[in-house]
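Need the bound structure for NDP, inputs here:
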Amino acid sequence: MSAEIIDGKAFAAKVRGQVAEHVARIKADHGITPGLAVVLVGEDPASQVYVRSKGKQTVEVGMNSYEHKLDADTSESDLLALIEKLNDDPAVHGILVQLPLPDHIDEDLVINSIDPAKDVDGFHISNVGLLGTGQKSMVPCTPLGCLMMLRDHHGSLSGMDAVVIGRSNIVGKPMAQLLLGDSCTVTIAHSRTKDLPDVVRRADIVVAAVGRAQMVPGAWIKPGATVIDVGINRIDKPEGGTRLVGDVDYESCAAVASAITPVPGGVGPMTIACLLANTLTATCRAHGLDEPQGLTA
Ligand SMILES: NC(=O)C1=CN([C@@H]2O[C@H](COP(=O)(O)OP(=O)(O)OC[C@H]3O[C@@H](n4cnc5c(N)ncnc54)[C@H](OP(=O)(O)O)[C@@H]3O)[C@@H](O)[C@H]2O)C=CC1
Ligand SMILES: Nc1nc(=O)c2c([nH]1)NC[C@@H]1CN(c3ccc(C(=O)N[C@@H](CCC(=O)O)C(=O)O)cc3)C=[N+]21
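Answer from helper R.:
Posting the output first, comments after.
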């Protein structure tokens, strides 16, 4: 079998089109322009690329983008003061603080200082709690993008066996919550999991969010399963230079899976599209307007 490739790049373009349409409508009808503030502390090159591409796409869908670049040695209190200012700014509907933060800054403290209504990453404890109890919340962008692709591919996910590899607060845990919400039987695997190959082999849906290049071989995949590869890993090419690969070994997994997301061009573009969708959702909620359909969990 050769797997169908789930085209995250094309799917993301479609989502951005829907967002742009809705943004144009609320601008015309209500004179409201959604605004997204992105805060970057330090000069990590990968983060800079990512923040730049978010800013560009934000403007392309008709929203205002506010970028705040702070020095790596910015104090925690200065960062908290900026967030307070953004919380109070009515032109800002979404706030994203790029992670990871430098070691001298308490990440939890910073995330939990964001107004939960503007927390478009869905990382604030109150959004985490709302998601965990099945209430309306802001849903983390990467897991939301994965869920959209899975729903689009399968229709209903009810009763399917899903394995999420990785238990981070930003990907693994919220991904598991969303799959549970769609009535999958969910297993969360991590670095202490006994016999990972055996656990993965039971899954109809495998979501790999580990951060280890090409860790999951096709031999672990149940024939016909759907593989969602969240990993973004840069590896050296034999001929020199580098390339991006995921957490699964694409060639061997694609040979046994029925569907698979590529890296690049899979989960990554969907993450940014969902960030824009969340910013639109936050704007609509802030102004009591109808929320976009199909762009939330
Ligand atoms: N495409 C996108 O939009 C995004 C991609 N990413 C990418 O996704 C990947 C994961 O990110 P993130 O969740 O932040 O990473 P973290 O490092 O926070 O978490 C990694 C998880 O993988 C688990 N793990 C590590 N080694 C193994 C192993 N050998 N077997 C099983 N589980 C293991 C860890 O287990 P334990 O808890 O026991 O340590 C941990 O739970 C990275 O490649 C990252 O770049 C992240 C965010 C967005
Ligand atoms: N507060 C916060 N929220 C995040 O959502 C967040 C974060 N911090 N820190 C870093 C991770 C990582 N992340 C990615 C998003 C898109 C791509 C993406 O679009 N990737 C392209 C390739 C890009 C390239 O070529 O480098 C692709 O997969 O096709 C990658 C990685 C979001 N993260």
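Comments: The CA atoms of residues 142 and 271 lie 5 Å apart. The longest strand covers residues 35-41.
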